[in-house]
Write a structure and sequence with these properties.
Number of helices: 20
Number of strands: 0
Helix content: over 70%
Radius of gyration: 39 Å
Largest sheet: none
Strand content: under 5%
Oligomer: single chain
Shape: elongated
Distance between the termini: 104 Å
Amino acid sequence: MEAVNEQDRTEMLAAKIVGDMLRNARLRRFALSVAENLIDTWARGGRVKQQIARPLRWMLTRGISPDGKKDSPAISSDLGRLLTAWSAGVNEDHRTDPSRHIAKRGRAIGAFIDGTDFGEVCEMIESSEECVVRTVDEFNRHLWKYPAKVGSILAALLAAMNTSIRALRELMRPVEKNVGPDLLADLTLSLVKGVNAKNAGDLANSAFELLRRLHTGSLLLGRSGRPLFQVYLTDFLKGMAAELDPVLLGKARTALAENRESIGSALADAYEANPDLALALISTLGAVMNASVKASSNRLKALGGIDMDSLSKAAGRAGTDLDTYEVAELANESFRLINRLHEASPDLFGAVARSIADSLDTGEIRRALEWIVPEMLNAFRPVIAEALPALVNGLCDMIGPAGGYESEGREEALVRLRTALHASGGER
């Protein structure tokens, strides 16, 4: 079909839809009500206008009043035909010239941008802050005069949510009943297959380049050796932190932790009431772990297939780029903090540890270790047999005279070790 014929068909369908809408009884009643309201408002201006208004009302009533006929459902069908005809016309245009509409749209976009003063728009948005905030305040002031209406709004939201849940359930029901696993997988996974991988890669590259440029620009514009991003973020966090209530923050954090506890307790109660759910989770634990293990194994296999020279260079660069000083400083700061806490409260760690130890069931722990240790040792005996000589020799090298490792209390510790070994029957 020629494009011009499709265009003519589109115009005829559009005209038919407009005509059907004008003949629609509800629309004509609405138009009549609007017209009568406008005439009544205009006629309040004087007696002459009232005299003129009477024949106008009569003509409107005769001209656009509903004829009593039922609304025709043909408009819905015509809308479908209109969409089809319009799509066919666009497709024909694109087959003839894929860029046919670009120039026209470009001119329209250019005219819009040329005619828009974005500075004025920006100023309007910035200056509207107080007005918007005051409007919200007025809304709240009037709304909360009637708490029952607030309750009605919340009830309406709840009803809308419940309706949405049921609607989604009904939307999925035909798929559940009528679509087989193979067809469902084919339909769904074809969407994944149909994604243009090249375009997705180009998009990712653009995003990566944007991040790189932002980072580079932040470094170039940095102050006092700090990236500009860090400077601005520090200022923002300092300003926000100054407004935070520490007591309220602590209470909120406690509330969130207790809410997590409530969620865990609710799940436990649900499992207790429905043990099959808990059994299903336990029974699938192995399969879930298998998937994670296989994924990790495949990643390592992929690394093993890379050229060793290239892999070695990449690993060497990673080791070179690693800031070992900062790693060590992290450990140092951790131990400094622990020592300071111990100096301030010498009994803190011991009291916590004793409290935990006193609450442990030593009998159950002993029973568990009596079978866990032998079984684990027996299971890993071949591994231990291979690793033990290297471990023992390494320990001997460290504590031997030629080890070269000197520290405070070393000699005392070695004497105690010799004494313990001798008392247990070991050789001196």
